[in-house]
């Protein structure tokens, strides 16, 4: 670790511990339970004077104190959270409830690759960025603040959003430690692991994650929460530590589809610091996403089933039976299942020859160098600086020196050359002739797939997806059902996901810490 970084880290750590130890209990209407409460529940409790934002923050500080040492879902808590809560309480007294957004006075954790211009660090989980100063809030954080949300802190993640080493432990970062699934204490999936862990374990109401390929859908699935991966450009990536601007997107991770829709309402739309949002803003529906929370949302929807995505093997009887029940539920809700479909070049897209890595490695070097140079201050200013930092501090980072293969491969690229252009053309063709053709030819509203298994198809085309809890295996590991669609299909996906959730109520809170 760089010598100048160590005092900063210790100071922040001691500050966090002081805050958490100061709030051992809080009093509010004992007839109201905060655990598993939705945004609507919380706003109603505010309105009925059963709860204040200050009490809500105090409750979650206690939850963090109890559970985060076990789960490692959170890197930092905002020292200013209680001040923000007090301000929200004052605003509520002066305003009509109808004038306030569903996120007003609600604590939100954001993934530690999303910039906040406050006392919090933005490090992508690495000590290499500890003490760096961002020029401004990320675009999505600006929108959260405008909606009245409380920036509660930074969620842990797979370091550098799982783009450092092939051998890097899933859900692990040097700053955050090893994140753990609150249901099994095992695999949380990455890279938005902490965003899912913190929501699943009731350490916060809602959170934000990011996805390049599977990083919202996968942790949402394995931690029994709802994740929305928006159309690329629907939400701003400005101020987000990047991997590929062609594939990166920011989305909500919540306990219910409704909460995720309300968060998406708050963060979607144009941002002058991200040009992609200008074009994608055409997909934002007038009246917002909340209008698509319909109990009969499955009725009449054409949902495609690609059986190759459900190839668990003949001996995995549980999952085969579990997803047949999912199909039955979809039909029960009035969906029209278009079964036994095939996606052209399925194995190419899901394998190593699609060209995705060739493109993303070059895109990462370009975009991360731009991000680092734009920082007001930083211990590192380029990918090569990050590589050198890791070499010098391999013991601190708890990885061997060779544990940055992706960094080294990306550094070896020389921009978007012939190989990269060919890879990009190949990806565009695979997407158009694969997922897009399947959707259009069969007039589908969505494809349904086990949790994260649809992510490759959505990633290379910039398409949206939603993951919803669907059950638990005999060992207690959660699994989910994912729905993916074409660009701008978020309204349909929300209708489908909400309709499915209404019929199943598939989420159960983890038993961690119960007496």
TrEMBL record:
Keyword Translocase: no
Amidase domain span: 56-450
Signal peptide segment: 1-28
Keywords linked to the UniProt accession: Signal
Pfam families assigned to the protein according to its UniProt record, in alphabetical order: Amidase (PF01425)
SUPFAM superfamilies: Amidase signature (AS) enzymes
Source domain of life: Eukaryota
The name this protein goes by in its record: Amidase domain-containing protein
Organism, as annotated: Cucumis sativus
Lineage: Eukaryota, Viridiplantae, Streptophyta, Embryophyta, Tracheophyta
């Amino acid at each position: 670790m760089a010598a100048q970084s160590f005092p900063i880290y210790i100071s922040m750590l001691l500050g966090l511990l002081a805050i958490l130890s100061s709030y051992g209990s809080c009093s509010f209407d004992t007839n109201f339970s905060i655990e598993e409460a939705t945004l609507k529940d919380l706003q109603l409790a505010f309105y009925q004077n059963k709860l204040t934002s200050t009490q809500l923050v105090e409750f979650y500080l206690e939850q963090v104190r109890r559970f985060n040492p076990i789960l490692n879902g959170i890197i930092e808590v905002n020292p200013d959270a209680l001040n923000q809560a007090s301000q929200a309480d004052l605003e509520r007294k002066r305003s009509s409830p109808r004038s306030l957004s569903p996120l007003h006075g609600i604590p939100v954790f954001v993934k530690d690759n999303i910039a906040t211009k406050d006392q919090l660090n933005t490090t992508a989980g690495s000590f290499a960025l500890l003490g760096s100063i961002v020029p401004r809030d990320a675009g999505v954080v600006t929108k959260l603040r405008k909606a009245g949300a409380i920036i509660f802190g930074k969620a842990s993640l797979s370091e550098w959003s799982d783009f450092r080493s092939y051998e890097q432990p899933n859900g692990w970062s040097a700053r955050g430690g090893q994140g753990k699934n609150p249901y099994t204490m095992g695999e949380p999936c990455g890279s938005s692991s902490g965003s899912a862990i913190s929501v699943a374990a009731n350490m916060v109401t809602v959170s934000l994650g990011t996805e390049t390929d599977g990083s919202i859908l996968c942790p949402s699935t394995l931690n029994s929460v709802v994740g929305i991966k928006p159309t690329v450009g629907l939400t701003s990536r400005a101020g987000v530590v990047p991997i590929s601007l062609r594939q990166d997107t920011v989305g909500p991770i919540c306990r219910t589809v409704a909460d995720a829709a309300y968060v998406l309402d708050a963060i979607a739309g144009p941002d002058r610091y991200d040009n992609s949002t200008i074009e994608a803003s055409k997909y934002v529906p007038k009246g917002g996403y909340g209008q698509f929370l319909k109990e009969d949302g499955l009725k009449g929807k054409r949902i495609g089933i690609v059986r190759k995505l459900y190839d668990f093997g003949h001996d995995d009887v549980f999952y085969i039976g579990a997803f047949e029940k999912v199909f039955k539920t979809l039909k029960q809700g009035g969906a029209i299942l278009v079964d036994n479909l095939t996606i052209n070049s399925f194995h190419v897209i899901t394998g190593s020859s699609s060209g995705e890595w060739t493109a993303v490695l070059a895109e990462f070097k370009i975009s991360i160098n731009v991000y680092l140079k734009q920082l007001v201050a930083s211990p590192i200013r380029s990918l090569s600086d990050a590589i050198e930092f890791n070499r010098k501090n391999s013991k601190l980072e708890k990885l061997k020196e060779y544990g940055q293969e992706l960094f080294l491969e990306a550094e070896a690229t020389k921009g978007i050359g012939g190989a990269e252009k060919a890879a990009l053309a190949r990806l565009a063709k695979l997407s158009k002739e694969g997922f897009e053709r399947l959707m259009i030819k069969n007039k589908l509203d969505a494809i349904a797939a086990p949790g994260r298994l649809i992510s490759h198809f959505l990633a290379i085309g910039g398409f949206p997806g939603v993951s919803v809890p669907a059950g638990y295996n005999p060992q207690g590991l959660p699994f989910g059902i994912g729905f993916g669609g074409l660009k701008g299909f978020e309204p349909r996906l929300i209708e489908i996901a909400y309709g499915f959730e209404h019929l199943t109520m598939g989420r159960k809170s983890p038993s961690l810490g119960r007496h």
